[in-house]
Task: inverse folding
């Protein structure tokens, strides 16, 4: 039975239910991942997409999983994308929901300097991600052209993210496709039924 590895943005793993629901059961085995600095994973104070990618690789190795379909939302999408681009040997297909494109945020995003009581993530992890989003990363457009696996990018037509850039990102991928849904940034949570109808046909070839 194929594996899907799901991760959200700053939210803890407990909130991936909307993503994992159409995947679970007799079709896929679903691994929900709290990225470092998020939820129940450790908060080591050192953060980068390279380190998060390495964490996922080590987790899959420990679990004996050598082929997976990353399904990522927001920051989880960025990690899933980088994982697929740099470890294609481990990736069968890729699903990116509302992943920010590697363009500098305009206007720049406010970077926190301290945490708040009750946060489910390390403010230092959020600061690192937001600093990354405030800069342009042209090399990631080149990485997109190297992702050979089938890739589905899902965007919301009322999201704060530029959908034309998400569509262009999909066009850069040899086997990428972009689908627009009615809704904002948290499509899997706010429009779960429609989200299911988008993701299920794409994943059917790997379902068992």
Result:
């Amino acid at each position: 039975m194929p594996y899907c590895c799901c991760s959200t943005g700053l939210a803890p793993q407990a909130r991936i239910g909307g993503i994992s629901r159409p995947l679970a059961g007799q079709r896929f085995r679903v691994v929900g991942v709290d990225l470092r600095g998020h939820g129940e994973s450790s908060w080591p104070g050192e953060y980068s997409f390279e380190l998060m990618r390495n964490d996922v690789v080590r987790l899959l190795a420990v679990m004996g999983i050598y082929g997976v379909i990353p399904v990522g939302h927001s920051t989880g999408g960025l990690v899933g994308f980088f994982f697929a681009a740099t470890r294609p040997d481990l990736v069968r297909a890729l699903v990116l929901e509302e992943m920010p494109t590697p363009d500098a945020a305009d206007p720049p995003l406010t970077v926190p300097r301290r945490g708040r009581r009750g946060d489910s993530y390390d403010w230092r992890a959020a600061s690192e991600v937001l600093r990354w989003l405030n800069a342009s990363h042209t090399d990631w457009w080149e990485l997109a052209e190297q992702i050979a696996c089938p890739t589905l990018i899902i965007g919301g037509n009322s999201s704060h993210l530029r959908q034309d850039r998400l569509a262009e990102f999909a066009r850069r991928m040899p086997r990428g496709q972009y689908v627009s849904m009615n809704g904002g940034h948290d499509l899997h949570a706010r429009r779960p039924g429609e989200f299911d109808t988008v993701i299920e046909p794409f994943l059917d070839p790997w379902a068992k």
